TrEMBL record:
<dbReference type="InterPro" id="IPR001623">
    <property type="entry name" value="DnaJ_domain"/>
</dbReference>
<dbReference type="Pfam" id="PF00226">
    <property type="entry name" value="DnaJ"/>
</dbReference>
<feature type="domain" description="J">
    <location>
        <begin position="405"/>
        <end position="459"/>
    </location>
</feature>
<protein>
    <submittedName>
        <fullName>DnaJ domain-containing protein</fullName>
    </submittedName>
</protein>
<dbReference type="InterPro" id="IPR011047">
    <property type="entry name" value="Quinoprotein_ADH-like_sf"/>
</dbReference>
<dbReference type="InterPro" id="IPR036869">
    <property type="entry name" value="J_dom_sf"/>
</dbReference>
Amino acid sequence: MDAATAARKSLPLIRKWLEDPRGNGKRLSLSMPALTQGGTMLAITGDRKGLAMLHDLVSEFDHLEEYRADAEKHLAAIDLFDAIRKAVAAKPGILQNKMKSEVGAEDGRLVSNLISWLEKAGEITRAKNGKTYALYVDGVEMSAKDASAIYTEPPRPGSHQARSKPGKPIELNLDKLTLLPLPPSPEAWSSQLTLPATSETFEDAEGVWRELTVEAIAPADRPDPAFRKHFTTRGGVLSFDDLAKSEASLGAPGAVMFTSEQDGTPMIERLERPIYALDIHPEGKGFATRSKTNILTVYREDLKVDFETDLSATPEVAAGRRRLDLDVEGGFLWGEPHLALNCIALSPSRDRYLYTHVDEAWCIDRDGKPLWGVRMPERPVETYHQTFEVGGIRGHTGTAAEIEEALEKLELALPVTPDEIRQKYRKLVRQLHPDLNPGNEERMKAVNAAYETLTGASHDDLQGKGNAEDLLTFSATVTFMTGGGPDRLQAAAFSGRGDSVLLGTSQGRVLRIDASGKPIALYDVGSAPIRVLETDRYLYIQTFTRLYVLEGDRLVGLQDCTTKCDLLVDEGLVLLVENKGVRVLTEAGRLLGVALTKAPIRRAGIEDGALVVETRTHRGRFSGLIA
């Protein structure tokens, strides 16, 4: 009901925005949830007047043309919602796959979607029944068989911390750390990277494998598509049915399957609680999950529960909620407590875990003893320059190819450190600045442009200097988003050896913390990292558009990637797995080859040095990689 009210209130605001003549010819094509999901909310609440307003709005303005078909569907959905309610009430336990004919609809997928919305609204309960669901109106007694298929979350375990007084986090002062600015990562909306399509079942896109063998997977051996999330570890592959669609998850919130690297025999167990956040042990020796209700569950190597603890019951989280007014309706993060707790990480030795709460990170041993806590400094209220207010570093962001070209213009190549870039730039300024050596204007412009691409320095920083000495004393200033407030922690991981922790923030910073909670290194990639992973030798930082590979403070590899891209490190190779393709890199991030598929990829990994890619019906083996 609240969502429908909010959607209705937003319609006059959208109209006002469209009627403003100052936006003519300059409007962006923005996604407007009020016209999509909001329309569904209006339909489910039977708000015909609100839907009429929505229909009139999208019909009147050409800018909203793409929403017109949805508006028609929303109007029709009111009657279809009512028909579904009546049918389920009249026939308790009716199967979902019978509902299309029961309500006289043509689109079975639409009917299933509306049933899902009624379930989310608490009006209908669905019980797994074979490959479909038995449907009941809320409050109606179920059959014993259907009731046994409904998951009920276990009682909350409480916190395993014995203390009631919160610990005091270390207030980090990042100004005392040496900043390693990396070439800024493009924002997701500006990235145009796509892999080519193929009509072949599997294709070696660049001809870098000596042999490609393709085999059909027998129906009995085909992977259950319900296990849709796959993680390659040194011991095998962990696969998760996080939507509870497999037979193994009957009566549970989902299931997990471990396929051993040695014998290929799958081991399947039910999950204890729904997955909202997930961290995988690098050797396949278990994993940790966080539920939406903030219960941390640690699983052993045999996929059984090791221990649980209620993260939201810790004194540190309680103190943080008071500090940030998270209990106030309409406060920070929309007053939703599950959004305040974000990352979890499990140490390789399984003796510690880490969780983040908004801008704080806490490392706890398995007995509940806090080892350390840190708090990120608040974001500056104002920026140094007001031109750009997106991401952590201002200025031009280039593609991976443009960055390689920029390095060439500075007479450099990977691997390279930020200091080497700065020193080379200063040297070239001495050689090329027109005040000292007239006639090098174009070369100086090219060097400035290259430095801008590599560091994020803005055009204004490099232009209009009075003499060469001004340029020689220039140093790029890291500029953060305006607005103040906490710098939220959005990625966390233990290092490959477990002797430090890596934290990624919403401002595009990645901070290394030692075993005592002391900050020891700071990187900046310009936009929020979505994953941080470290092996014994290399650090991998992945944003929505880029993968950075570092060895110590040296940038050794850089690859562009798409917004939906899984990162796997397996047998000395790095895989960037997309929907219909895998890019294979060396550990240092150099591209070796691209494997394409016609159908969506279910699983990918390295087996005995060969890349093995599986779709639902076929398995491709790319072997004999040409170095």
